[in-house]
UniProtKB/TrEMBL annotation:
<dbReference type="InterPro" id="IPR024747">
    <property type="entry name" value="Pyridox_Oxase-rel"/>
</dbReference>
<protein>
    <recommendedName>
        <fullName>Pyridoxamine 5'-phosphate oxidase putative domain-containing protein</fullName>
    </recommendedName>
</protein>
<dbReference type="Pfam" id="PF12900">
    <property type="entry name" value="Pyridox_ox_2"/>
</dbReference>
<dbReference type="InterPro" id="IPR012349">
    <property type="entry name" value="Split_barrel_FMN-bd"/>
</dbReference>
Amino acid sequence: MSAASDDQPDVLTALTRKPDRQGDRALLDEILDTAQVGTLSTVIDGWPWSVPMLFARVGDDIILHGSTGAGALRQVASGAPVAFSVFVLDGIVVAETLFDHSANYRSAVVRGVARNAEIPADALDALSDKLIPGRVAETPTTTRKEIAATTALRLPIVDGEWITKARTGGPGADTDAWTGVVPVRTVFDDPITYTGDADDVPASVRALVG
């Protein structure tokens, strides 16, 4: 990652333990494009506030959304500094001793100030198409009323205000006993039909589970 601003504590911009696991911008983009849920955190009236949120990366921005009735999101949109964290579990590392058990993972934290998206409909379309690629083209255009009820935020990815970390491989301990890695991945099961004909599953949904 790029050099941080002078007024930021080093603990926010560099790994103090196992610095070799720190990644570059390519890893950041990979993590943000792989994960579907991240945690948005800030401080409100001296109290910590965190909430898991669906998100999408569009170029150098992280797109978030929520209800206009969420007071915390209104404070975030007004300029409160935030941290957005993402974690992808890739495997459980099994060692001879419990002390040497570990996990393979990719993680990222992006800090900064989120702003209202200039075109909320575009932000919502980007988020929807990340979750179900191609779904936006199959649905009616979002109405003005729906847009008015939604807060769409844009968190810029700024050099010096993000950090990544990743682990790969097996246990670090030297042993003749069995060790290994149990891979972890996210899969989509067949859709459950609630209304309509089960044979009329949209193409985007079929592609997602396929």
